[in-house]
From TrEMBL:
This is IS66 family insertion sequence element accessory protein TnpB. InterPro entries: Transposase_IS66_Orf2 (IPR008878). PANTHER family: BLR8292 PROTEIN, PTHR36455. It holds the Pfam family TnpB_IS66.
Length: 113
């Protein structure tokens, strides 16, 4: 799954329609592509996740009860790995987190009779 983060903050009064417009404006990407789009507020205290599942949009909102997000991509097209997103959602910093290496596809062993 492709995950993209808008590097600059967005107005968190925006809902699904406003964030789909931001997907096109900030990221130059199609919000109907099935990719996951991440947005943050100006103060780094909340994030929104937008994804289209083929039948409609999901919009998730997380506001930290304390502190600020410890990390946010600032360049490089805003592409984020699933591992980085997981650490970010748990209020961590992927640059310094000690965890298992990224997931990768493993070839299935061939079955012979």
């Amino acid at each position: 799954m492709r995950i993209f983060a808008a590097c600059e903050p967005v107005d968190f009064r925006r809902g699904i329609d406003g964030l789909t417009a931001e997907c096109r404006r900030l990221l130059n990407l199609d919000p109907f592509s099935g990719a996951v789009f991440l947005f943050r507020n100006r103060t780094l205290s909340a994030l929104k996740i937008l994804v289209y599942d083929g039948t409609g949009f999901w919009l998730c909102y997380k506001r930290l009860s304390r502190g600020k997000l410890k990390w946010w991509p600032v360049e490089g097209g805003g592409q984020v790995s699933a591992r980085d997103l997981q650490v970010l959602l748990y209020h961590g910093d992927p640059r310094s987190a000690g965890y298992a290496p990224e997931w990768r596809r493993v070839q299935q062993p061939s079955v012979s009779n």
